[in-house]
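pasting for the record
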Amino acid sequence: MPETENAPDQRERVARRIARAGICSRRQAETLIHKGRVAVNGEPLDHPAANVGPDDEVFVDGEPLPPLEPPRLWRFHKRPGRISTRRDPEGRRTIFDDLPPHLPRVMAVGRLDLNSEGLLLLTNDGRLARHLEHPDTGLVRRYRVRVHGRVDENALAALENGVTVEGVTYGPIKAGLERQQGSNAWLTVSLREGRNREVRRVLEHLGYSVTRLIRVAYGPFQLGKLPRDRVAEVRRPALRDQLGTKLWASLTAGLKEKA
């Protein structure tokens, strides 16, 4: 691939460029490259270490990448009975079946399992998705959880010290009793890691069967009164303020940002 005159800070790995375009994750893009499905400026790539600049043309399966846009973020109210991946080998419905047709190609930030509901963030930018998901970012995920059983508030309080379940150690979890209604109870649960089925596994470890799980916040982004299956974009000034000037500058480097 020929060298270009782009400034070094505007060049990036081709897999990152593909992820930024919302085609797939960076790791999935590297797999596409190894399979010979990616070309740059008309030349097939066979390794993911190549860098590209703003003027390089990247093709996946013969189709050019869409023009890069500044990162965008949407709040989506996921219903239960949907999976968060784009395709499912078992043919189950996914969240992407419920998205409006005018939405650009997006990816989910983290996941909610099949039977969970509530706030799911969507973005057109792979780097933004990774930032929001990464444990080092430390964003708090908040849930309302309905469980079956009489709740021991002391057992919930002990979760702030972390807990090990079947050999897996989970970090501090803040959980409290919202209200007990006979043999059922509503809890509030907050955590920072959000591992696969973490809330369900930890509460089941305490002897509580989870009958409903609703994510109500992901960091500063709230579910609020967003109706089920509806999407609402986070306005760009608000997103920029939440991410901070330094991260926003990194995410938009080399782009001609619209006002």
